[in-house]
Design goal:
Blueprint: H1 3-15, H2 19-57, H3 64-72
Length: 73
């Protein structure tokens, strides 16, 4: 379905003031929002992981044992 046709159909459904249809549209919008948030979270995690791996490759890291030694000082 083309975007303009879809928009027109959605407005018709909302104008019909059918509570079940409005609720269904609302749920779809919420699910879409959750999917976008999940996608952004995954992308952020992947970026942080890439940065951490790059730091490790450069030797910019500390082991857990070394950290414990530093804390005890």
């Amino acid at each position: 379905m083309q975007k303009a046709t879809l928009k027109k159909r959605v407005h018709e459904l909302i104008d019909a003031n059918d509570d079940e249809i409005i609720s269904a549209i609302y749920i779809l919008l919420q699910v879409n929002n959750v999917e976008n948030i999940r996608k952004e979270s995954i992308e952020k995690y992947n970026d942080e992981l890439d940065n951490a791996e790059a730091a490790i490759d450069k030797g910019q890291f500390i082991t857990h044992e070394d950290l414990k030694k530093e804390v005890k000082k």
